[in-house]
């Protein structure tokens, strides 16, 4: 395992042109998809130390994918690269820009065989140096495949990768920089690295119960990746989290272009209200409520009470917070409560944007 002062070692691997650096730049460096064509190929290994949720440090190794580098990784650099890895993200292009076909049989069998050849070497290296590492395979640039063929292409790659990684539990995602699939995959990757995640889920469940919310969702502030959620009702759209991540991230970038900052977002109609607002220093919370008798001010009061409690635990070094005291929340429905310990709101962010939308949209819950 990674040393405490080094953070979690995450390997990002795949052949040249697979899109590794582009996806990293979109998630962590606030690039727009259309701007990634300005990026250069990675030469050898590029190291990045990334802060996530304040206390979680990701030591990301972006490994250049040119064949000469790939051969070197598995011949003379195996121990250096693969030792103490917690996560391997292996990116394979679904259909390369040059192939232009959704038919795998026409996509260059020698290229596909080489992809699997290098992946097999990566699995052998992990078994030797980091047998407990988690493996995520991203079948990338899926937008280049005709929509009618995407599920089939994804199944074929998943089958081939699983057969190549005998005895290794891998998880496959189809991704593209042009839609929300990239956020879904990276949310799952980061989720696997967050300590005490189940305790955090219990806290969100308690907040949802006290606020009588249909759903409470926690997002990381800078990347807007999903951290965790608690739902009290069945929701129609299973892809809602990554869609919200993509939309809000794009809106935040638009705010930055006019030198202002995103503060909060609210959508309300006759069926529900959904509010996204800052929670802790490194996170945003979304609360969805369909009961018209629950005032928005009451929900805000409960969130501020929980926020104060989480802050105290975070100062003690906890990952967000290990437990949540029920007494810290005020259960209010029709009016604003003043729970013990509730502090005045901090000064508003200068030139912050508050978005409030009144609209009629399909319900979130059945």
Tell me about this structure.
With 366 residues, the protein is an alpha/beta fold. Helices cover 34% and strands 22% of the residues. It contains nine helices and twelve strands. Strands 2-3-1-4-5-6 form a six-stranded mixed β-sheet, with helices on both faces. Strands 8-7-11-10-9-12 form a six-stranded mixed β-sheet, sandwiched between helices. Helix 6 packs across helix 8 (240-257). The longest helix is centred in the N-terminal third of the chain and has 21 residues, at 109-129. The two termini are 43 Å apart. Mean pLDDT is 82; it is low at 1-5, 98-107, 321-330, 332-354 and 357-361.
Key traits:
34% helix, 6-stranded mixed sheet, disordered N terminus, 12 strands, 366 residues
